[in-house]
Structure formats: C-alpha cells, structure tokens
Amino acid sequence: MTYGRRTERRRIFRAFAALAGLLVGFFAVLLGPAAPASAHAALVASDPANGTIVPDAPNKVTLTFSESVQLLSGKIQVLAPDSSRADQGEPTVDGGTVTIPLRSGGGRGTYLVSYRVISADSHPVGGSITFSVGAASTPPSASVDETKVNPVVRALIPVGKYLGYAGLVLLVGPVLVLALLWPHRLSRRGPARLIWTGVGLVTLSTLMALWLQAPYSTGSTLFDVRVGDLRDVLGSTFGAVMLVRLGVICAAALLLRPLLRGRGNESKADLALLGVLGVAAIATWPLTGHPTASPVAGVSVVVDAIHLAAMAVWLGGLVMLVGFLLRQADERELGAILPIWSRWAATAVSALIVAGVVQALIEVSSLRGLVDSTYGQLILVKVGLAALVLGVAWWSRRLVRSKSAEAEPRGLRKIVAIELAITAVILGVTSALVQISPPRTAEAASSADTTTTVTKTLTDAKMAVQIDVFPAQVGNNSIHLYAFTPDNKPLTVVEWKATAALPAKNIEPIEIPLLRITDFHAVGDIALPAAGEWTFKITARTSDIDQSTLTTTATIK
C-alpha cells in the first residue's frame, strides 16, 4: 500500500512539473514584451520628405516601406492645414511603395499624412509624417491614433500562437511515433486522445488568429469587429494561408482515423499523404511571420519550416515516450524502440540547432543587435534554455546507450519530463518572439532615407527666404532658395547671390553659383570641404533699388 502511495505521488509530481512548465511558458507569452504596434516594417522614405518645406503643393504623396505592404480600407489620409481632407481617390500600392493622390489647389502651410498598413509578416504598421507648402504652420491633428493596438488583442495573439505550437507538438511527433514505432499489442486510445487534442489546438489557434487579425489590423477592440473587417482578413495573404491550414487539418483528420483505430487498414499511400499534409501545415507558420519579410525570404521560409518540424518531431516524440511507451512497453519493446528514437532525436536536435543559427543570423544581422535589442536578448534566453535541454537530452541518450533505460525506465521518464518542462518555456519565448520586431527592421528604420536636408526660413520686413541644403554633409551639396512675401505668396526675385563660410576653421566666404529656374526659385551647387557650423549669406534683389540680405547658419556633418 505504501509503495502504491509513493508511486501515485510520483505520478502527481511529474504531472505537476509538466503542468508548471506549461504554465510558465504560457505566462512567458502573456508577460513577454511587445512593441505597441509590433511594427515589423519601417517607413524608409517619403516624397515629400518628412518635415520638409516645398514651394508648391504636390499632386501626390509617396510612402516607401522597407518591405511590401497591404492597404487597409480607410486607414490612409492626408489632412490640409485647415484640417480638411487633402487626399482624393484611393491610394495604390506597388510592393513597398504606397501612392496617395492629392486634390489640386491645396493651401499653404503644414500637411499631416497618417497611415496604417499591413506589413509582409502580417503585422500592422502605423504612423504619420508632415510636410509644408510655402512655409510651416501649426500641423492639423489626426482624428485617430493609427499606431495603437488594443492591449487585450495584443496579449491574446501570442497566446493563440502558443496554443498552435503546442498543438503542432501533440500532432506531428505522436503521429510519427504511432505510425512507425508503436507496438501492435498496446492500445492506441491514449495516443489518439493526444493527437485529437493537437488537432483541436491547431484548429482553435487558427480560428483565433483569423478573428484577432481583424481588430489587430484596424486597432479596434476584441469584439468591435465588422463583417467587412473579417472579409478583408480572409481576402488577404494572411487569411489565405490560414484557410489553407484549416483545409489541411481537416484533410489530415480524415486520414488519421484508420491510424488511430489501429486496425491495420491504414495504407502506405495514406501515410505518405499524411506526410505531405504535415509538411504543408508546417509551412503555413513561416508564411505568416518574419521569414516572409526576410531579405532572403525563400531561405528563411524553408529554414523556419525545418525548425518547426524538428521541434514538433522531437517534443512530440518525448511526449509519447514519457506519457505512454516508458510506462506501457516491456523491456524487449523498449530495446527495439529507444535506439531508433534516439537517432531520430539526435537528427531533430541537429536540425534545430542549424536552423536556429541560420534564423538568428538573418534576423539579428549583427552582434550588437543580439545584445542591445529585446529580440536578441530573447534569442539569448532561448539559446540558454536550449543548451539546458541539450544537456538533459545528452544524459537521456547516455541512458539509452547503456541499456539501463530498458530495464528501469522510471529514471528516463523523469529526465524526459524535465526536458518537456523546459521546452514548454522555450515555446513561450518563441511565441513572444514572433510579436517583436527583429533588429534588421530597426536597422532599416534607423538608416531610413527620411531626409538629411537642412531647411531654414529667414525673414525681414520685405520678404521671407527659405534655404534648403542637401545632404548637409561634407562634399557636394545642393542649395535651393525660395522667396515669399510676408503673407506667404511667391515673390519675384530679379537676381540672387549667396555665399558660404566657416569662420571657426578660417574658411572665407565661398560664392555659390546660382541658377534662377522660376521667378521665386533658384538652385546652386557647392563643395563644402569641412564639417562645422557654416554661415550662409543670401542676397535677393527684387527690383533696381530693392533688395534684402539675410544670414543663417547650418550644421554640416
């Protein structure tokens, strides 16, 4: 009786340990960091550039992103200085370039461009830029915040991904073990329940993803979802991939029934088709994540699929071992099963390591990104946990090779239970990772060609002169001069003169050759030989007797 109680306590302890690992992984998902909008694309350029002043109102605004994007209905607008809509018609997209047509006759002052689009990895990207026509003014206020994501929606998305990963583990590995390693004398009822649980979790995760994508894309709340929003999701690349996953799962469920019943009527063709469906299902994960936006998308998708498949085979096989085989199989059966499984596990772990290294090299792209970014730090946590699991796996493999696990499987069961508890946390970290921008995205944003133009407006009682210096760096620079009346109307200039000097380094004024291309606009080029605070002196003559001389400074880097 005492031995029976001890055995029961051990089972309860092992179950508690596994449950604790799952809960820790679950809360790692809930509490893991996530950017406010989880933007995985970056606005790298715009025309007109952010913060610049142009002489005439443009007929369109162009936004260029670091990766291809999809439009959201009604989520792009341009507001004129008086807060009226300056855009007209529907914006268009070509890869990563969005073009917004503008109505003619826009007034002078500052315009606000707000946008929200879907990046290639299915995450929303929102923000705003401003530009001015003629002269800057108080910018209009946007009616909505295009960068927000509902906190409940943001928390539920990684939870759904975690459930999907768990379902994949309970589906792929157990099916493989049941088809190729399962002793005929053992009942398949327990593994069947496990596999159907995996099918249910993957299905639930997919349906959650489809529903959550609507408020995630639009920035609305969990239940503030319109039929049109769901239709937009289903019509997107993300929705198409999710529907393919659902179709694959339904087809796999039909083919699984003979295998789970164990009547020996499953055909090799059915098993081969199950393998094909398994590959197709696994491929749907990278097709809606970071790999699709990678600089080498084809490589990233394949590597990520290999990573997921190896994870599902390894962890799913461990679940079958600790849950059934090490409890129910006899010494002779374990003697045949464990060496084969050991080779499978070694292959799966090798694939995990290689694929993980390749993924990290692509997404992190630099040692600094690995240390300084949240994404890189979570990668390091994941590597540390993986090293711990590998140490435990090495010990279990040693037991298998020594044959002691076949005669006394309880020790191996404990080791495998520890592996599963740690890997449950790894799944949680992985689920959090997919919601965080990789360092390559941050680098794209930091190197964005927003503008390096220095713009200054100089005024006196007679006129206002705007000077643009581009790129405001040592070497050749372009100079643009615009003249306006005090009430911001174009002013005809008969003759322009300009010089540039750097007193701090004893560089005397250098004359800037200018070409008058319109009545109020002149351009010129000058080579600035050194960095520093340059002094620009501009003289604008408007008649035989009227002229103004204005001076400003600009930092040249």
* Radius of gyration, taken over Cα atoms and rounded to an integer in Å: 32 Å
Query: What level of helicity do the residues show?
Result: 40-55%
Percentage of residues in strands = 15-25%
Q: What's the average pLDDT?
A: 79
Structural class: alpha+beta
Shape designation? elongated
Report the sheet with the most strands, covering strand number, pairing sense and barrel closure.
5 strands, mixed
In short:
This protein is α+β, with helices and mostly antiparallel strands and 557 residues long. The chain contains 13 helices and 18 strands.
Structure, explained:
The radius of gyration is 32 Å and the shape is elongated. 49% of the residues lie in helices and 21% in strands. It is of the alpha+beta class. Strands 2, 4, 5, 8 and 9 form a five-stranded mixed β-sheet that branches. Strands 10-11-12-16-15 form a five-stranded antiparallel β-sheet, with no helix packed on it. It has 13 helices and 18 strands. 43% of the residues are buried. The model is unreliable at 5-39 (pLDDT under 50). It has helices at 2-31, 151-180, 189-218, 227-234, 237-261, 268-283, 297-328, 331-364, 367-372, 374-401, 404-407, 410-433, 439-446, and strands spanning 43-47, 53-54, 60-65, 69-71, 77-79, 92-94, 97-101, 109-119, 124-133, 454-459, 464-470, 475-484, 495-502, 507-511, 514-518, 521-528, 532-541, 547-556.
Please describe the topology of this protein.
Elements: H1 2-31, E1 43-47, E2 53-54, E3 60-65, E4 69-71, E5 77-79, E6 92-94, E7 97-101, E8 109-119, E9 124-133, H2 151-180, H3 189-218, H4 227-234, H5 237-261, H6 268-283, H7 297-328, H8 331-364, H9 367-372, H10 374-401, H11 404-407, H12 410-433, H13 439-446, E10 454-459, E11 464-470, E12 475-484, E13 495-502, E14 507-511, E15 514-518, E16 521-528, E17 532-541, E18 547-556
Parallel strand pairs: 2-9
Antiparallel strand pairs: 1-3, 3-7, 4-8, 5-8, 6-7, 8-9, 10-11, 11-12, 12-16, 13-14, 13-17, 15-16, 17-18
